[in-house]
């Protein structure tokens, strides 16, 4: 089983949904309002938005 999965997250500012990987290598910003949703920590990312679903 893989240790990391894809996550569907929802922007707390504008409610736009995004799909990201649990160990992403880039910062993720909302396409609509440009709010930072995923922050890098060196391994797993710190998600600054509610997780709606694990895919």
Would you kindly provide a written description of the structure presented here, covering whatever features stand out?
A hairpin with a 6-residue loop joins β4 (36-39) and β5. The chain has strands at 6-10, 17-21, 28-29, 36-39, 46-47, 51-54. The chain is globular, with a radius of gyration of 11 Å. The chain is built from no helices and 6 strands. It has a single domain (6-54), classed as N-terminal domain of TfIIb.
What's the rounded overall pLDDT mean?
Answer: 87
Instruction: Provide the helix percentage.
Output: under 10%
The CATH class label is Mainly Beta
What is the fourth-level CATH superfamily?
Ribosomal protein S27
| Number of helical stretches of at least 4 residues | 0
Q: Approximately what portion of the residues adopt beta-strand conformation?
A: 35-45%
Low-confidence runs (pLDDT<50, min 5 residues)?
none
CATH topology tier name:
N-terminal domain of TfIIb
Write the layout of secondary structure elements.
Elements: E1 6-10, E2 17-21, E3 28-29, E4 36-39, E5 46-47, E6 51-54
Antiparallel strand pairs: 1-2, 1-6, 3-4, 4-5
